[in-house]
Every structure is written in structure tokens, then in C-alpha cells.
Backbone:
């Protein structure tokens, strides 16, 4: 098994991949593929793993846990994500939530602010998962954060 089998897997570049909830086997594969960190944006109540933090750490990777409430994403959540992206060790990072919605939203905003992505690049990345969806609270959050980032 490889990390490419993670639900809604997306490879951003040689350092970052995003996806939905990984299985234990996916996390083991991440360690074998030389990933250094895992960032989880899903609340533990949604996880299929009983102790994801312990598993990730036992595999030698750094674990960041930012439980983003699906019904109420906040600027503080985004700031915590941005902080984790800054604090993570050098090397590859697996960033996940339950279905890669939270992550593609946050990553697109992060890349717009910190990686020089254009608004179009950020939107295209997000829409690879979000196309056809209608989540008003998220659309409002993304619009508000995009306006703050782009001025």
C-alpha cells in the first residue's frame, strides 16, 4: 500500500500531499516513503483510528493536530495551520482531514499567502476536490480569508 491510495489523494509537490483520512496502512506507507510529518485537520470524533497521534509518533513522524469544526472554520484554525506548516520538520508532509475538503481549503489559502500562488492556482487546487459542492459556511470563510490575504 502507498500514500497514493489515500481517499481524495492530491500531490501538491515533492514535499506536500493532501488527502482524506488515512488508514493505519497509509500512515505506515508514509513512514516508509520518508514522510517527516502529518498534519490532521479532522476532529478525533470523526477519525477511524483510535490513536492516530500515537501511531504517527511511533512511526517516527511529527504529528500536528488542528481539529477544525466543519460547521465553523475560523481564522484561528487557519493561523494554527499556518503555524504547523512553519514548525514542521524539513521533509515531506502528509496533510489530511476526513475527505480533503478542509485541507484543500486551508492549503489553497496558505499557498496563496505563503507560496506565491495566484488566486487562480489556489482556486484550481481547491476545486479539484470542491467542484460541485455547496457548503455556504466554507464559501464565506474562504472568501473572507482570501480578501484578507490579497488585500
Residues:
Amino acid at each position: 500500500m502507498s500514500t497514493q491510495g489515500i481517499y481524495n489523494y492530491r500531490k501538491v509537490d515533492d514535499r506536500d500531499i493532501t488527502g482524506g483520512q488515512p488508514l493505519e496502512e497509509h500512515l505506515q506507507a508514509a513512514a516508509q516513503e520518508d514522510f517527516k510529518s502529518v498534519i490532521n485537520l479532522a476532529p478525533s470524533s470523526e477519525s477511524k483510528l483510535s490513536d492516530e497521534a500515537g501511531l504517527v509518533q511511533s512511526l517516527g513522524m511529527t504529528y500536528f493536530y488542528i481539529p477544525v469544526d466543519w460547521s465553523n472554520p475560523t481564522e484561528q484554525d487557519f493561523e494554527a495551520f499556518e503555524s504547523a506548516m512553519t514548525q514542521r520538520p524539513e521533509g515531506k508532509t502528509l496533510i489530511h482531514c476526513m475527505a480533503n475538503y478542509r485541507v484543500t481549503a486551508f492549503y489553497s489559502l496558505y499557498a496563496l499567502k505563503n507560496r506565491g500562488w495566484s488566486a487562480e492556482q489556489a482556486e484550481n487546487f481547491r476545486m479539484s476536490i470542491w467542484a460541485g459542492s455547496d457548503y455556504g459556511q466554507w464559501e464565506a470563510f474562504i472568501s473572507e480569508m482570501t480578501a484578507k490575504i490579497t488585500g
In short: The longest strand covers residues 35-40. The chain has one domain: 3-150. The two ends are 43 Å apart (CA to CA). The beta strands are 10-11, 16-19, 35-40, 62-65, 92-96.
